[in-house]
């Protein structure tokens, strides 16, 4: 019996991952639950425990992984004292039960300043070739973290020259942090520094891995998809719905980097969300890569996010302007969004910069229901409750 086209595509990219795994000395591709991947780029003894079809993550030489550093980073990630006014942590906008998003249309900073964009998931962020929605230059977590910490437009964590030392003093006054910093940075006489804070949080974020959804279990042969989920998978990876063009990697996006990467592609896409007045414009300040290049062809181009855990990461799009996953499917089936009134009125379906893959698709209500069923198989419930990624202060308080 011939496999459906979509299943051939799934088999092809899974086999490709297994081949890649062999090339970079990964173990267990093809049926085991996990594989232990040595981080050959460091001498710290760190090993990745990953699904067998996940490649070894890329880690900067300047910040090798250690268990002690990642654990320190977990405490710092959840610590509100790291913000200028002591009210907000990294975790305030990246909540574990929401796959490290916040459920808001756009996030709010520690001073109440509204962020213009929707908080992205941190699940598998270690594999993202670029970070944030539309900045091709931010390619490491260490560099990206400077924006939420020290940025002023918008203010997120609210760290500035007037409170930097005070915040470090808060950490030093906590008797638990001295030993944690010492273990993470042995040999440093005064390890409580901003550079070490950033490195530790980055290390923790690289451990936020998602690869145990129902779909992953299906690939490993340990569970089956029901008929609706199977039909949805066929649509997703097939030419009818064409979702796979931007979401076919093991991480269900199209910007991937890992230890074995030789060529890294970083596409950005205009999906026809806006077309103000028929001019191709997107509303300020969310104008995509155009904000950096000032090239009209880059107007409205944003990174395609991973669809892993998409069931719990709404609202959707770069500005959170689509509330539900069902509406997202309707948007793509329509080939863009037609806004008929208000300041953003315009037919996004006719945006001159719209990606060639975004076209009207004849999806029935049953097709959309099947696609939704498949997308829900990408939810990794282990990620959402994993105590190794959870708030350590809540555990200390006995909550």
UniProtKB/TrEMBL annotation:
One of its GO terms (cellular component) is periplasmic space. Residues 1-27 form the signal peptide. Its cofactor is heme. Its main location: periplasm. It is found in: Periplasm. Residues 68-175, 227-379 form the Cytochrome c domain. Its EC number is 1.11.1.5. InterPro entries: Cyt_c-like_dom, Cyt_c-like_dom_sf, Cytochrome_c_Peroxidase/MauG, Di-haem_cyt_c_peroxidsae, MauG/Cytc_peroxidase, MbnH-like. One of its GO terms (molecular function) is heme binding. Keywords: Heme, Iron, Metal-binding, Oxidoreductase, Periplasm, Peroxidase, Signal. The keyword Manganese does not apply. Binds 2 heme groups per subunit. SUPFAM superfamilies: Cytochrome c. Binds 2 heme groups. NCBIfam families: MXAN_0977_Heme2. This is Cytochrome-c peroxidase. It comes from Delftia acidovorans (strain DSM 14801 / SPH-1). The lineage of its organism: Bacteria, Pseudomonadati, Pseudomonadota, Betaproteobacteria, Burkholderiales.
């Amino acid at each position: 019996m011939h496999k459906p086209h979509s299943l051939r595509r799934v088999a092809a990219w899974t086999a490709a991952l297994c081949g890649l795994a062999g090339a970079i000395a990964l173990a267990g591709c093809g049926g085991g639950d996990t594989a232990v991947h040595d981080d050959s780029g460091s001498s710290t003894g760190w090993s990745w425990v990953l699904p067998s079809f996940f490649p070894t993550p890329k880690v900067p030489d300047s910040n090798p992984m250690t268990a002690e550093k990642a654990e320190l980073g977990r405490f710092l990630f959840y610590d509100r004292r790291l913000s200028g006014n002591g009210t907000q942590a990294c975790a305030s906008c990246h909540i574990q039960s929401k796959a490290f998003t916040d459920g808001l249309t756009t996030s709010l900073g520690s001073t109440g300043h509204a962020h213009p964009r929707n908080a992205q998931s941190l699940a598998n962020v270690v594999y993202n070739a670029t970070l944030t929605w539309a900045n091709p230059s931010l390619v490491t977590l260490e560099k990206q973290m400077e924006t939420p910490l020290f940025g002023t437009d918008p203010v997120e964590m609210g760290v500035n020259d007037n409170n930097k030392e005070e915040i470090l003093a808060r950490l030093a006054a906590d008797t638990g942090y001295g030993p944690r910093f010492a273990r993470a940075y042995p040999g440093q006489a005064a390890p409580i520094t901003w550079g070490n804070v950033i490195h530790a949080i980055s290390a923790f974020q690289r451990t936020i891995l998602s690869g145990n959804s129902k779909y992953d279990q299906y690939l490993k042969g340990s569970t089956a998809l029901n008929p609706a989920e199977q039909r949805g998978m066929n649509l997703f990876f097939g030419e009818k719905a064409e979702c796979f063009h931007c979401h076919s990697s093991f991480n269900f996006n199209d910007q991937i980097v890992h230890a074995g990467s030789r060529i890294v592609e970083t596409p950005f896409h205009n999906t026809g969300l806006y077309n103000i007045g028929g001019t191709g414009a997107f509303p300020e300040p969310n104008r995509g890569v155009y904000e950096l290049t000032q090239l009209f062809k880059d107007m409205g181009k944003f990174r395609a996010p991973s669809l892993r855990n998409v069931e719990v990461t709404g609202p959707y799009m770069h500005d959170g302007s689509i509330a539900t996953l069902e509406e997202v499917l309707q948007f793509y089936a329509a080939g863009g969004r037609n806004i008929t009134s208000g300041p953003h009125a315009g037919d996004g379906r006719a945006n001159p910069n719209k990606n060639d893959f975004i076209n009207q698709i004849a999806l029935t209500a049953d097709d959309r229901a099947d696609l939704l069923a498949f997308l829900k198989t990408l939810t990794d419930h282990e990620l959402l409750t994993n105590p190794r990624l959870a708030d350590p202060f809540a555990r200390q308080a006995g909550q």
